[in-house]
Amino acid sequence: MAYSYQLKRVDFIFRNENDWEKVLSTTIKKKPDEIINELISSELKGRGGAGFPTGLKWKLTAESKETEKYVICNADEGEPGTFKDREILSKVPYKVLTAMAVCGYVTGAKEGYIYLRGEYKFLENELNKAIDEFLYYCQEINLDFKIKIFMGSGAYICGEETALMESMEGRRGEPRNKPPFPTQAGYRNKPTVINNVETLVHTWTIFKYGAKKFYDLGVQYSRGTKLFSVSGDTPKPGIYELELGMSLQDFVYEFGDGDTKAVQVGGASGFLVPRKKFKDTAIGYEGKLVGISLPTGGSMMLFNSSRSMFNVLDNYLEFFREESCGQCTPCRVGCQQLLLGIKAVKRGEKPASYLDKLLKLTETMQLTAKCGLGQSVANSFSSIVENFREEMIY
Amino acid sequence: MMNKNVNITINGFRVEVKKGMTILEAAEEEGIKIPTLCYHKDLCVAGNCRVCVVEVVGQKRLSAACATPCEDGMEILTNSLKVRNSRKHIIELLLAEHNADCTKCYRNGNCELQKLASEYKIMTQDFLELSPLKNYTIDMYSPSIMKDDSKCIRCQRCVRTCAELQGVNALTVAYKGDRMKIATFFEKAMNDVVCTNCGQCINHCPTGALVERNYIEEVWNAISDLGKHVVVQTAPAVRVGLGEEMGMKPGEAVTGKMVAALRRLGFDSVLDTDFTADLTILEEGTELLTRLKKALVEKDQTVSIPMITSCSPGWIKYIEHLYPDNLENLSTCKSPQQMFGALAKTYYAKARNIDPENIVSVSIMPCTAKKYEAHRPEMHDSGYRDVDYVLTTRELAIMVKQAGLDFEKLPPAKFDRLMGESTGAGVIFGATGGVMEAALRTVYELVTGREVPFEKLNIKPVRGMEGVRKASVKIDNPLEEWAFLDGVELKCAVAHGLVNAKKIMDTVKAGKADFHFVEIMACPGGCLGGGGQPIPTNPEIRKKRAEAIYAEDTSLSLRKSHDNPEVQKLYKDFLKEPLGELSHHLLHTKYTRRERF
Description:
The complex is a heterodimer of chains A (394) and B (597). By secondary structure, chain A is of the alpha/beta class. Chain A has helices at residues 20-27, 32-42, 54-63, 84-91, 93-107, 124-140, 161-168, 197-209, 211-215, 248-255, 309-323, 329-346, 354-368, 372-387, 389-393, and strands at 70-75, 111-116, 146-151, 192-196, 218-219, 222-223, 225-232, 238-243, 260-265, 271-274, 281-283, 292-294, 299-304. In chain A, strand 9 and strand 10 (271-274) form a beta hairpin. Chain B has four domains: 5-79, Ubiquitin-like (UB roll) (Roll); 101-210, Alpha-Beta Plaits, CATH 3.30.70; 216-275 and 337-409, Rossmann fold; 283-333 and 423-539 and 550-587, 3-Layer(aba) Sandwich (Fe-only Hydrogenase (Larger Subunit), Chain L, domain 3), CATH 3.40.950. The longest helix of chain B has 24 residues, at 273-296. Chain B: Keywords: 2Fe-2S, 4Fe-4S, Iron, Iron-sulfur, Membrane, Metal-binding, NAD, Repeat, Translocase.
């Protein structure tokens, strides 16, 4: 074995702890500023994939003078290859609820919503029971905060925060123009904190164990741990909590089946890394580290040499073509062009050089699409086409 | 906040703009045009076509100029290489999706996408054509509006128009991704849904996806048929819009040239809808006074007050769909177009000794709902179809161009006699508040024997572009016959744009409206902003057209409907009296309850 490095597994998120009442009551004895500073010093970044500093998000919302504010837990886990939020909500819902209530206390929001993915309807009953128990305790300690579940209907785009809010307001799930950002004008045009399920659980860890404990994990710019949903050609698919900053080589060493050809980091909207780049790739947020640093919402899909990268890309593009909300030109038409384009090249109806035109098109999509969906189609497209060009043509 | 200024640079030039202004507005002020498609001055910002993207230095992605507010220190590039390449790409994408068979398109020559493609010189087609892959069919069921999804660029201007200006929501977005389209309720045909046929969606569509059902060939055929006597009537708003189609500036009244052109096109008699507008005032004014008498003197509980005008067929269909319980509030008067139609094949035919069978009645309207109105089964009271063909201002312009007329050089001409005479009161029907003003001029004088107490008959409170306007006129010393109105404050309200109609109708429905008389026009600005008017129509253009209408009113010597000598003659020779038996038969109608989807 060439590598002696062990992946640093951690166990914070699913650690079975029954003291959420204590965590809640002691945390809200602190001043809001104190809590925000703690979050900021932990350098926790959003775990949905975009990586916005969580402490700053709470701070911006707390600073707003509006009296009506909201906390939303984004549980519309729709990215192909992620299934971590489902586990969190079924195993440790109290950590999420506690974090939402603390967020409400810090920002001044009195209402929280869990936007639950349509396909997770089966979680609703259990989750409602947990909410009832949780709210009962909130009443006991005189914490004025309510939590409700809002069921999504199954559109991928509704995981985009502003489309999610449109959907909650009873309209079509279409992303809004930004600015204004949700911290200024979110749900019902009021300041809103919207956090991924996992992000909220991490804040819980920070409330309980302190910012330092969290900060000490991971590497510079990418502090703490992260849940990974491991799937594909692996002998041990599942959910793993690992420290950020690991090299992809180590990851493949641990999870690969010995024949790993490439790993898709971050789901359909993420990047594909071919074997030759495993060593230079680290998993974490963009920073000044050496090599490539790839952020991820947690989806890690491994492909072995039996897989056709053309089929992989074809599958992603079909997904995007269908799941684009369809409002903005680059995303709606762009996705159709990319899909039909690679098929045309494969069939020999377009020359191989047409792939370069499509690559240019993804640049435009990245520059001009209205929301993260259209902007990130370029990620998987260019990383697959550039690294496996041959497979696209023959 | 709004008064504070911010400093930005646009293409390297430092400028100071108001805080809160978008990049698009700031650039426009500096004389820099940023191309747009989904943006329209009448509508809220959508930011979905992405044609207006600009570079804000220091930002990774481009920003939509229409949706991004200027912030202090912003360095904006509207024509950098990045911007140009992206913009070109986006236009190419739209063209790939669009059925770009321009030569066969009704909007050929006045299409925003075509214009952009020409400006950016898109000479090749790199991307795959998408529209042949989708089984598009054209919805031609409505007598007013045709919807061709293959030409739709999904800018959602029609959707916003239908929601924000009209509050009707007949058109909405359906499906997602590549299947996303603009659709009606369950994709039913346009004539089976709540659509009011107002045509505002046509007027706001950048391409040929929504166009009027045109009857140009039918009219040419009628004109060429020597056995037919073709009469044409022109609505008041057409004369202040037509010039724009002929290359003139907005706000020029071209009444004389229009009449000359119509005569040269070969119409046998060129007449004026303003004539029946005056007639409408006498019928409707009398109806109002009758209703007031029943309500105030006879205490008749069955009489519905306020009485609401019925000139606007878009509004009629709206109330039929959305407030069917209030149909009794509508005046039973037909619209001027339909009064004209009914008279053309009775009174006119008799007077001119022509078999009504051989009369083809054409009307030129600023409106697409008029096409539907003429089509209604109720509108056959002359024994024939009262109005055979309705053309929009735009269609007339096409005919004038086809006939090769040099419009600007035409010597002004006058309307033919018998149903061609009108007063200023008839002319102002074309602007919001006009029917109300015309009615007040007549009703007040009918009741008191004196002119309405406003300077030069200009009833300013009912004019303007505010969505809902209210006014009242106190009646003192009425004639003996109307003694019951002594001291009564006649309260009126005016609304234009159906979203404003809703505001009034909600109070009427709740029984909280304290008006006696309400004027409602379906389109913003009244008929002059109608769905059949030249494209583009926007707030500035509507204002100019309104000015032209009021100028036309003041220029006329007769400004009160009851002074119209031809109308007086009509009553003497034919109808006998307002609300008489014959007018009841020919000039009044009833309405239908409709479903709400």
